[in-house]
């Protein structure tokens, strides 16, 4: 006999773990199982590496409501100023948190300690963990989905939540396609130390080869995301630390300060990806399993967290039966517009700024200059950075 649960979440990364805790707080009476393919220890989850993520202010407030974030944590740093510029052109803009009566536009959080916190909370909760384990088959019926795990355990669920990433095998089991389009760019990520500190400044610098982003971290460090043509990745990854720092300093300039030390580097290809549907029979798809976006605006996890919030609210308030067609349709209606808008905006930014056209460069410069001269024009971008997007509405 399959073990019955109200909800089974597949994938225990940031999206899946936060989803389990969020739903449980929104409706403590539901029974939840979480299935994670990788072994999790108190040290870290495999997806909880040395990377950092940018949390929009709305995401921070939501995680605080779940008791999953503290602004003064040693592994977080506030973003109070954002500097946007276009290399080789006159346009630039600055966005400051005090212009919008906020203590911060968002925070940069190290993924590893955040992941440890999530799993500590999961272990202390009523969520049943199946880890390491994975789904190898799904049988659908009118009232539930039955999942067979690699361990031969069987679970039944009124609602299945797919949260196992952009390369989701569970999504494939259900025949949900994931349309992808490569950007012909890759990203090098690393932590880089800056002389005299960062003073809570973040930088987004656009070049014809791709954007560069510096996000403030603890201990006078920035989280670096350096996007470039795929064929250049190997060349820069092969440089020793001193040569890499020098190359980045020359490419970025000195407005962020003098870079002194770089940590371990990693790289990955950049791809636009979107599931053709957010739902299937008694199933919803969230996080990177539903949408994979360019890191140009730091929106990836924030978008996934809004998936979590919408789903948790539905579990607590929907008048429809958990997991039924009306329930999953309601979820899709609540999330589709926000997801499509953010993905379109992000993709447009990539194509607009990763371009050497003089006409487009002039338009970019005028746009950035206008934002700097007329503060009211900053509001839409600032709201996007802070995640102040109402569910189901246009930006």
Account of the protein in words:
- By secondary structure, the protein is an alpha+beta fold.
- It has a domain of 197 residues: FAD/NAD(P)-binding domain (3-Layer(bba) Sandwich), CATH 3.50.50.60.
- 33% of the residues lie in helices and 30% in strands.
- It has ten helices and 20 strands.
- Strands 5, 6, 12, 13, 14, 15, 16, 17 and 20 form a nine-stranded mixed beta sheet that branches. Strands 1, 2, 8, 9, 10, 11, 18 and 19 form an eight-stranded mixed beta sheet that branches. Strands 3-7-4 form a three-stranded antiparallel beta sheet.
- Strand 14 and strand 15 form a beta hairpin.
- Helix 1 packs across helix 3 and helix 7 runs antiparallel to helix 8.
- It is globular, with a radius of gyration of 21 Å.
- It starts with a strand and ends in a 9-residue tail after the last helix.
- The C terminus is likely disordered.
Order of helix and strand elements from N to C terminus: EHEEHEEEEHEEEEHEEEEHHEEEEEHHHH
In percent, how helical is the residue content?
A: 25-40%
Task: Determine the CATH superfamily of the domain at 3-52 and 111-179 and 272-349.
Answer: FAD/NAD(P)-binding domain
Overall form: globular
Output the CATH topology of the domain at 3-52 and 111-179 and 272-349: FAD/NAD(P)-binding domain
**Helical segment count:** 10
Q: Please state the structural category.
A: alpha+beta
- What low-confidence regions span 5 or more consecutive residues with pLDDT below 50? 355-374, 391-395
Distance between the termini: 48 Å
Tell me the name of the CATH class of the domain at 3-52 and 111-179 and 272-349. Alpha Beta
């Amino acid at each position: 006999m399959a073990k019955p649960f109200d909800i089974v979440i597949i994938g225990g990364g940031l999206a899946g773990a936060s989803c389990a805790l969020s739903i449980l707080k929104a409706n403590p009476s539901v029974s939840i199982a979480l299935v994670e393919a990788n072994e999790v220890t108190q040290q870290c989850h495999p997806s909880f590496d040395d990377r950092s993520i940018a949390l929009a202010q709305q995401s921070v407030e939501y995680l605080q409501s779940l008791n999953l974030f503290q602004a003064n944590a040693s592994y977080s740093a506030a973003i109070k100023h954002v500097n946007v510029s276009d290399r080789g052109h006159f346009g630039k803009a600055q966005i400051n948190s005090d212009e919008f009566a906020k203590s911060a536009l968002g925070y940069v959080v190290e993924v590893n300690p955040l992941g440890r916190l999530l799993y500590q909370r999961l272990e202390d909760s009523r969520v049943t963990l199946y880890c390491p384990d994975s789904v190898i088959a799904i049988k659908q019926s009118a009232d539930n989905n039955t999942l067979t795990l690699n361990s031969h355990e069987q679970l039944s669920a009124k609602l299945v939540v797919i949260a196992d990433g952009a390369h989701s095998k569970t999504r494939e089991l259900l025949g949900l396609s994931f349309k992808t389009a490569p950007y012909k760019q890759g990203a090098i990520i690393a932590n880089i130390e800056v002389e005299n500190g960062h003073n809570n400044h973040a930088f987004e610098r656009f070049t014809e080869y791709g954007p560069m982003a510096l996000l403030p971290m603890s201990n006078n460090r920035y989280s670096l995301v350096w996007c470039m043509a795929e064929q250049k990745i190997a060349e820069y990854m092969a440089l020793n630390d001193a040569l890499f720092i020098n190359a980045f300093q020359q490419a970025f300039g000195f407005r962020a300060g003098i870079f002194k030390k770089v940590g371990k580097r990693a790289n990955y290809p950049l791809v636009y990806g979107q599931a053709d549907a957010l739902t299937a029979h008694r199933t919803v798809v969230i996080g990177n399993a539903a949408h994979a976006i360019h890191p140009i605006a730091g929106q990836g996890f924030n978008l996934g967290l809004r998936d979590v919030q919408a789903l948790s609210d539905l579990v607590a308030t929907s008048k429809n039966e958990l997991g039924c067609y009306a329930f999953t349709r309601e979820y899709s209606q609540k999330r589709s517009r926000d997801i499509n808008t953010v993905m379109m905006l992000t993709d447009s930014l990539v194509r607009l700024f990763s371009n050497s056209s003089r006409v487009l460069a002039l338009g970019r410069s005028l746009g950035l200059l206008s934002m700097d001269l007329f503060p009211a024009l900053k509001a839409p971008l600032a709201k996007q950075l802070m995640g102040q997007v109402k569910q189901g509405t246009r930006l």
